[in-house]
Amino acid sequence: MNAADLKEVLAKHRLYLGGDAGGERADLRGADLIEANLCGANLGGASLAEADLWMANLTGADLHDADLEGADLHDAILTGADLHGANLRWANLRWAILHRANLLDADLRWADLEGAIGLEAEEGTT
């Protein structure tokens, strides 16, 4: 997915979250987002199932209740990301950086967390 298309999807999703006209829930299922810079992006409730987010920067991103089933987050930076209630079943989180990520109520069944960094238990964050 090119940067212009991604920018448009994010803008429509912002409108959707605000209940504004022209808003549309972000549907990034299967999207190629390799090395994408999504720092601080609001993708709460978005569909990112099977998306390729290898080495993506999601620092501080809001991904609460997002569908990331089967997503490839290998080597992704998720420092401070809000993954509260996210569906991460079958997600590849190998070597992902998860410092201060909020994983409360996230579904991590069958997720691959080998080598994931920052999974030390912190009250209310993992």
Report on the structure:
With 126 residues, the protein is largely without helices or strands. The protein has a single domain, classed as Pectate Lyase C-like. Helix content is 13%, strand content 0%. The chain contains one helix and no strands. It has one helix at residues 3-18. The longest helix is centred in the first third of the chain and has 16 residues, at 3-18. The termini are far apart. Residues 122-126 have low confidence and may be disordered.
In summary, what is this structure?
It is built from 1 helix and no strands. With 126 residues, it is low in regular secondary structure.
Set out the fold topology.
Blueprint: H1 3-18
Key phrases:
Pectate Lyase C-like; little secondary structure; disordered C terminus
Distance between the termini: 31 Å
Put simply, the count of helices is: 1
Low-confidence stretches: 122-126
Q: How many structural domains does the protein architecture include?
A: 1
Mean pLDDT, nearest integer? 94
* CATH topology annotation: Pectate Lyase C-like
Which range does the strand content fall in? under 5%
Major sheet: size, sense and barrel closure? none
The helicity comes to: 10-25%
- Rg over C-alpha atoms, rounded to the nearest angstrom: 13 Å
The CATH architecture would be: 3 Solenoid
From N to C, what is the helix and strand string?
H
Count every beta strand, where a strand is a DSSP E run of 2 or more residues. 0
Structural class assignment: little secondary structure
Which CATH class?
Answer: Mainly Beta
Shape: globular
